[in-house]
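User: Please predict the structure of the protein below. I'd like the answer in structure-token form so I can feed it into my own downstream comparison script.

Assistant: Understood. Taking the following sequence of 143 residues as input:
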Amino acid sequence: MTKYEQLLTIQKRKLEKALQHLAYSYNKVQQLPEDAKLLDEEQLETWESFAARFSRVADIFLTQYLRTIILISDPGFKGTLRDQLNQAEKSSIIEDTKNWLTIREIRNITAHDYSENDLTNFFKQLKLQCPNLLKINEIISRS
């Protein structure tokens, strides 16, 4: 087993656990209002936990797992995240580069402070994109 294959095994376990946590949080936010103005402290905390878990899964998958899969087949690969996603799409690991760039953009938003209206839109985007992140289970089961 090569060092990249060993690394992939570790990342796969980490990703599976993070996906379980994300699915749990996703189920919890299904019952909550998306409008930030209507949230009490406990509900806001639940949304924030969901956002953090969303970000963690996106990070592990995009910056670690996918990169390692690509390096297994092409140890000399160097490139940006976009290059990596394009390579993953060409290799049929992912279906749509644009979708993953959108997920990355949403992930980047978690580090910023926003008004209640912006926060409401952010929550809607998280909820909308989460099923795409949860599909990572299908991707990792093939590798």
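That's the full token string. The chain has a mean pLDDT of 93.
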